[in-house]
Input
Amino acid sequence: MTVYRRAPSSRSRGRSHGHKRRLTQAERRQHTRQALLDAALEHMDAGVSFDALSLRSVARAAGVVPAAFYRHFSSMDELGLALVDESFHTLRSLLREARESGLPPKHVIRRSVEVIVEQVLAHRQHFALIARARTDGNTVLRHAVNNEIRLVTSELATDLARFDAMRGWTNEDLQMLAGLLVNTMILNVAAILDLPTNGGQPPSQALDEIVRVAEKQLRLPLLAVPNWSSTR
Amino acid sequence: MTVYRRAPSSRSRGRSHGHKRRLTQAERRQHTRQALLDAALEHMDAGVSFDALSLRSVARAAGVVPAAFYRHFSSMDELGLALVDESFHTLRSLLREARESGLPPKHVIRRSVEVIVEQVLAHRQHFALIARARTDGNTVLRHAVNNEIRLVTSELATDLARFDAMRGWTNEDLQMLAGLLVNTMILNVAAILDLPTNGGQPPSQALDEIVRVAEKQLRLPLLAVPNWSSTR
Output
């Protein structure tokens, strides 16, 4: 059984420090910003859709007056974009690292799946937001998420182009394969988010099965590379 | 350029007949049922999420009193299930037909993609509901959609098992490949639903590109079949 380490939740970051030193202004500012982001995630966790979130209730849950909200975000949409940005920023750099490790493809795939699953489990609420935003009514968030996914796909396509076996491939075909791999992971992440949780963690047997099948689904298309003729 | 024929919309079915013959009781009943389903789809098309739909407003838009709603559906959830059921019933039988045509795999793939795209364009609102229900808050609809997707996947896995090249494959691997193909189509359908529309139709160039890439994404994994060793 693979054990996924649960990274410290963003919610525990920067909250109470357990000592009495007065916070600097910058720390207080960061503290409030984080409290607003957390409050939005908590509300959505309780089943409220992003579009139904009110700035007023998010501010109240974060312990600030509505006017204070605007010192951090110009609108609820901007807050949503910050959440999308946070999640993808870390994920993309971890995936790039996995691919630059110089390991053989099978290990790169395993490591990439591990990185994604670790991130999803550690930042469940962020990824639940992302999963919903893809089909949600909010246009700003949907575009942001789709752009991030396109960026992940393009970075992967660029790395695929470096393999000898894909040197002659057209751009469309490189994007096609990268898209196939990214889409596969998107729906496997959705399946992980759909698992019931106990203490924030899904049952390890169900999780392991999704991970095992996901790895196969990423390995299989790569095995077809020598048999594919990419023509303009 | 492929031309997708737009099937008659469910909304034009059974509405005004243009003649004065009195409808039978069964016809009136069917008429009201359809009006309720249409009203729900129209409201969702205007951006209301399924969970935010009120029985009262759906009944009003269909021109009946709320009490009349219950002669057709026991709840809004049951109405939602009827919409999911309608869409998948036709789609599944068309996909089975495509696979039973006896055509070579490349043609079966092309025909399957065509069938899916035709259905999605002809019943855009149904599929928009399905796409959203997958990540939406409503548990009843989400389970129904996920079950239908599992059924489509299982039927495909059964058909894949008949190929000589996959005769030795484990069940998990057959489901893995079927899942890969189905997931690919799910996200391509989502991309089609995301295209801007003009008179209900997306721009044909953008649509053709999605279709062309989707066909490649279905063909590529199948090319890997001879290179895959499926072990228990």
Q: What stands out?
A: Confidence is low (pLDDT under 50) at residues 5-15 of chain B. The first helix of chain B runs from residue 25 to 45. Chain B is about 65% helix and 0% strand.
